[in-house]
Amino acid sequence: MNQPQLSLHLSVAQVQQNWPETVGVFSQLKTACVGCYLQRFCTLQEVADYYHLDPETLLESLRLVLHIT
Amino acid sequence: MQIKIEDLRRVVVFRNGSDEDLAQIARNALPRSIEDGSYFFLQGDPAHYLYVLTSGRVKLLQNNPAGQQVNLRTINPWQMFGALGAVHRQATYPASAQALEDSTALAMESSFLHQMMETRPYLSFDLMHLMTAYIQEMQERYRELATERVEQRIARALLRLTAQLGRRLDPEKDIELSFSRQDLAEMTGTTLYTVSRTLSDWERRGILKTGRERVTICEPHSLVQIAEGLDE
Asked: Cα distance from A48 to chain B (closest Cα, Å)?
């Protein structure tokens, strides 16, 4: 199966569908992304902007649960 | 119209039916076509027939004695509606079924399905499956009505509509969708006036832009915060 590479341009829906284990990260960071109606519209970059998270830290947290180094 | 067995299997209640059963159902189904705005049945009529929509779109709406309408749900092709009579022989339709566009549905006598159900447990289970899903959805909406501010309900309904109908013409750009304010009022159990006032308020705050039967969402995240009650 062709999986996209994890990047800030992916939508929350794409990230959670491709890597369901990332769902917990969105809750831990206290975002409202899990179950949000707008998942398919919202990119990781936008999540970082909305919640004032450092984009690299967000990516890093996601990579951590995916064991991507 | 030739009714195909594989099409009937798309109906939740019929999905486990044998070819033989579905052929029997097809033989007892009559296609009925109505125009945009007409009704398959009216609230309070005896529920002698149940329907399976095959094309178009139908809304189920309930009127209160003062004439105010509440939109209960929208039916899409291969969904069953008006099936109450198959369970209670004396039932009347609890809502009216109005076509949102030219629509065709298969009509079956409620007593026919009732008879089939007596010897086919799969039909009862799948009908229960459909009904429990409806109950859960209604419980959710009831909770929203009972506990959430009207602004929050409108935001949530708008988010639901956005998830279903929203389009983003360019990535990172605003999300656009078309719907009528009346629909939004019926979905949220409020008035057209309240919907208009709320949308105008959000427009002033830069959350969205409104046009004729159209909305552009500029700050989706603010809408999520209102819907989640995080804006207070």
From this structure: 12
